[in-house]
Amino acid sequence: MQHRIIVLGAGYTGAFAAGRLARRLHGDDVAVTLVNAEPDFVERVRNHQLAAGQDLKPRPFAEMFAGTGVELKLAEVTAVDADAKTVAVTGSGGAETLAYDTLVYALGSGWTDHGVAGAAEHAYEIASRSGALRLRDRLARLDAGSRVTVVGGGLTGIEAATEFAEARPDLDVAIVARRDLGDWVSPKAQAHLRKVFAKLGITVYEHTDVAEVRDGEIVTADGTRIASAATVWTTGFAVHPIAAATTLETTARGQIVVDGDMASVSHPDVFAVGDAGYAIGDAGVPLRMSCASGIPMAQAAADAITARLTGAKAGKVPLGYFNQCISLGRTEGLIQYVHADDRTRTVSLRGRFAARYKEIICKGAAWGVANPTYGMPVRRRRVAKAAEHAGSAVKALA
What is the pTM of this model? Predict the structure, then answer.
């Protein structure tokens, strides 16, 4: 009987984990099913480009996983029963329940309005492809001189504002930040950010909180009204709510608490990767929600599952940071080097070379999803039944 591995979510981490498992475990012994609502891989880190009117390369899963043995089930996950080891999904054929032996939970995160009045009704989000396409349509219909306001001064907000300003120089682009613009990067890097924003004509509102979003304007905490024909909300992410509704141990944010193998501390047959997992990095601090964290988490989980089933030894996957890559349109960029715990170093790369560097990183992330063994020869290991049962028993007693 095949060991049933179900992977929920086919973003960077879920697709990577599914592909790596299928390429490392023998198909006669293991069935890998990837559940996702869409048939194509979404390059989430490029959603601001999609919204700005650029066409991205299609990446259908049928081609990505051809010949790997991964079974793609197009369906929406509606519930997880971690005690019964089942997943409820709804697809074109209606509702059904899937049973698993090992679950990889990679449902990730989406946008959040943080309870700000009117944001859900009047703001646009780019955390999803559907949201980016909705904004794309809105921007295409805006007349010259219209104000586009990006709320949120983090990585997503900075990339979105610069992309829109470069792609549509006829628009009046602004960004609203709660603190100083780019205050987490090094002084030289921050100066470069300001230089690029000034060159692109982006209006910057610093130390500003948004209290309400209305049709055609936003209202700040001090009552200031800022006209906005399109308000783009980039103030952070919220994890998918399904995990918090289960018996899995989760944080207050709804992330699944995991050990060093990315296995749930309460249900060791469940592995959580990417934004859905709460993991401690090598530097002793929690990993933040990012692609830079998610891919290593997915590799660690896939290798741990492989080791558990085959009796092999899983290698150590580094769980730390090296740099933050920020695109500032298509011709400018910023690479901020950081310590393993994500604290900023003084060194950064800026300008055109940094833009090319970031593009290589984006292409590499998509390539890595399609090539999760990093181009190395594939060796599909056979499942050792004794090792499987012993491993499960040890985990259950831990």
Answer: 0.92
